[in-house]
C-alpha cells in the first residue's frame, strides 16, 4: 500500500517527542511542534467523518469526496477490490475519536494515542491558535486549519512562542486550562486582573490534580473542559463542579472514579466510600472492623441480607496476676457531641434522624438536603458552598456549629421556621 499523509505526520509527531527528550533547551519549541502534528491528525478525523456522512447520503463511499481524501490521507491500497474494503474500514475508524485512536495504535501509532488525551490536544491547539487565525487568514479554510500549507508549522510555532511563551508539551494542557478559566472569570466581571490570574492558576492546579488522580486509577485522562475547581480556605479541600451539574469534594479514589465514569451513581454505594468510612459503618452496625476494603464491603452486604459478622467476646482470664479485684468497667457518660450536632442539623434540614445510621451517611443526607433547599431559594454562591462544607467538617470533628447562623447564611431561615 502506498504511503499516505497520515504516516508522514505520525513520524513528525513521534520525532518531536524524541527531540523533546534529547534537546531540553529546545523542548518548548518541539512541544508546540508535537501539539501541531497531533492537532492535524485529530482534525483530519473530524473532516473525514463529515465526508463519510455526506457520502452515505449520496449513495456510497466509492467515487465520493471521502474516497479522494481518505486515499490521500491513509494511502492507496493495492487492488480495486481491496480499496472498497479499506474505505469501509476507514469510515468505521473515523466514526469516533476512540475508534480512530485505536486504529492508529494498531496501524503504526504509539500506545500514547489515547482518545481523551489526543482529542483534548486538538481543543488546546484551537484555543492557542485563536489569535493566529485572525493574524494569518491564509492558513485557515472555513473553520479548519490548513496544516498542509507550506510554512504552516513554522508560522504557527513561532506565533505560539511569541504569544504564549515557551511551554513544554507536558505543561500546555495546564496552561490551556488557565486560559479557559481566565475567559470564564473575565465574563463574570467585577474582578481585578490580578485576582483573575490567581483564581485561574488555582483552578488549573485543581483540575491537574484531578486529572492525575484518574490516571493513577489506571484510566485515561478525563475531558475537563468546562470544569471548575475551587480550594476551600479552611478545610484546604478541592471542590469540583462539572459542566453537567456534577459536583464533589476532594480528589479521592471515589471522586476520580466518578470522573472516569466507573463509579456507582447511588448515594450510599459502599464502593464510593473510603476504608475509614467503611469501618465506621461496620462499627455503627456492631460488625467487625478489620480487613481490606473488599472484605468490609462484603461484610456490609452480608449484613443487609441478615448475616452479621460480629466480633466475638473476649474470654475472662482464669487468674489475674498479682491478685486483687477486677478494675471497674468504664462507663461512658454524656452525649456524643458529633451525633448531638448532627441531630440538630437533621432537624434544620428536615431530615429524619436515624440513631443507628453512620455519621457519614447522616452528614451526606443533610448536606444534600441543605444544598437543595438553598438552590431552590437563591443561586448558590461559592461563599455559601464553602460555608456548608466548613460547617459539616466542623460537625464531624465535634465542634459546635450554630444552626441559626447556618440558616441565616443560607438565606433559608423563613423556610425552616
Care to describe what's here?
- There is one protein chain.
- By secondary structure, the chain is mainly alpha-helical.
- It has four domains: 163 residues, no CATH class; 85 residues, no CATH class; 35 residues, no CATH class; 80 residues, no CATH class.
- The protein has a three-stranded antiparallel sheet. Strands 1-2 form a two-stranded antiparallel sheet.
- Strand 1 and strand 2 form a beta hairpin.
- Helix 1 runs antiparallel to helix 2.
- About 1% of the residues have low confidence.
Strand content: under 5%
Whole-number count of domains: 4
Question: So what's the oligomer here?
Answer: single chain
User: Gyration radius, to the nearest Å?
Assistant: 29 Å
| Helical proportion, percent range | 55-70%
The assigned structural class equals mainly alpha
Q: Note poorly predicted spans.
A: 264-268
Query: Can you count the helices?
Result: 18
Question: How are the strands ordered across the major sheet?
Answer: 3-4-5
CA(first)-CA(last) distance: 78 Å
Gross morphology: elongated
Mean model confidence by pLDDT:
74
* Element-level helix/strand string: HHHHHHHEEHHHEEEHHHHHHHH
Spell out the blueprint of helices and strands.
Elements: H1 5-22, H2 27-58, H3 65-74, H4 80-93, H5 97-106, H6 115-128, H7 130-135, E1 140-141, E2 144-145, H8 152-164, H9 169-188, H10 193-216, E3 228-231, E4 238-241, E5 247-249, H11 253-259, H12 275-284, H13 293-304, H14 337-349, H15 359-377, H16 382-396, H17 403-410, H18 413-416
Antiparallel strand pairs: 1-2, 3-4, 4-5
Helix pairs in contact: 1-2, 2-3, 2-6, 2-8, 5-6, 6-9, 9-10, 10-11, 12-13, 14-15, 15-16
Amino acid at each position: 500500500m502506498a504511503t499516505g499523509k497520515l504516516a508522514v505526520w505520525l513520524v513528525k509527531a513521534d520525532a518531536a517527542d524524541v527531540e523533546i527528550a534529547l534537546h531540553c533547551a529546545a523542548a518548548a519549541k518541539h512541544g508546540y511542534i508535537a501539539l501541531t502534528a497531533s492537532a492535524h491528525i485529530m482534525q483530519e478525523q473530524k473532516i473525514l467523518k463529515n465526508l463519510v456522512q455526506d457520502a452515505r447520503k449520496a449513495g456510497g463511499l466509492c467515487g465520493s469526496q471521502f474516497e479522494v481524501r481518505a486515499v490521500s490521507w491513509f494511502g492507496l491500497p493495492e487492488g480495486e477490490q481491496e480499496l472498497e474494503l479499506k474505505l469501509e474500514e476507514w469510515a468505521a475508524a473515523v466514526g469516533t475519536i476512540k475508534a480512530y485512536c485505536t486504529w492508529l495504535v494498531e496501524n503504526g501509532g504509539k500506545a500514547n494515542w489515547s482518545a481523551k488525551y489526543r482529542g483534548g490536544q486538538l481543543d488546546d491547539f484551537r484555543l492557542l491558535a485563536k489569535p493566529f487565525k485572525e493574524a494569518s487568514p491564509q492558513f485557515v479554510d472555513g473553520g479548519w486549519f490548513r496544516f498542509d500549507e507550506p510554512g504552516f508549522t513554522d508560522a504557527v510555532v513561532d506565533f505560539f512562542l511569541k504569544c504564549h511563551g515557551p511551554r513544554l508539551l507536558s505543561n500546555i494542557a495546564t496552561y490551556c486550562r488557565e486560559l479557559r478559566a481566565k475567559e470564564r472569570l473575565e465574563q463574570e466581571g467585577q474582578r481585578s486582573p490580578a485576582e483573575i490570574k490567581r483564581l485561574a492558576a488555582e483552578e488549573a492546579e485543581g483540575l491537574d490534580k484531578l486529572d492525575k488522580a484518574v490516571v493513577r486509577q489506571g484510566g485515561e485522562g478525563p475531558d475537563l473542559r468546562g470544569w471548575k475547581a475551587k480550594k476551600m480556605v479552611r478545610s484546604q479541600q478541592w471542590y469540583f463542579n462539572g459542566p453537567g451539574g456534577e459536583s464533589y469534594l476532594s480528589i479521592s479514589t471515589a471522586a476520580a472514579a466518578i470522573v472516569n465514569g466507573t463509579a456507582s451513581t447511588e448515594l450510599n454505594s459502599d464502593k464510593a466510600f473510603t476504608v475509614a468510612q467503611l469501618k465506621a459503618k461496620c462499627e455503627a452496625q456492631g460488625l467487625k472492623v478489620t480487613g481490606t476494603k473488599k472484605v468490609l464491603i462484603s461484610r456490609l452486604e452480608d449484613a443487609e441480607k441478615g448475616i452479621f459478622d460480629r466480633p466475638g467476646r473476649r474470654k475472662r482470664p482464669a487468674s489475674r496476676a498479682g491478685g486483687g479485684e477486677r478494675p471497674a468497667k468504664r462507663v461512658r457518660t454524656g452525649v456524643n457531641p458529633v451525633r448531638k450536632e448532627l441531630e440538630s442539623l437533621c432537624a434544620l434540614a428536615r431530615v429524619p434522624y436515624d440513631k443507628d445510621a453512620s455519621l457519614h451517611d447522616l452528614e451526606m443526607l443533610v448536606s444534600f438536603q441543605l444544598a437543595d433547599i438553598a438552590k431552590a431559594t437563591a443561586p448558590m454562591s461559592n461563599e455559601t458552598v464553602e460555608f456548608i462544607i466548613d460547617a459539616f467538617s466542623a460537625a464531624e470533628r465535634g465542634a459546635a456549629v450554630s444552626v441559626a447562623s447556618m440558616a441565616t447564611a443560607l438565606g433559608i431561615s423563613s423556610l425552616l421556621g
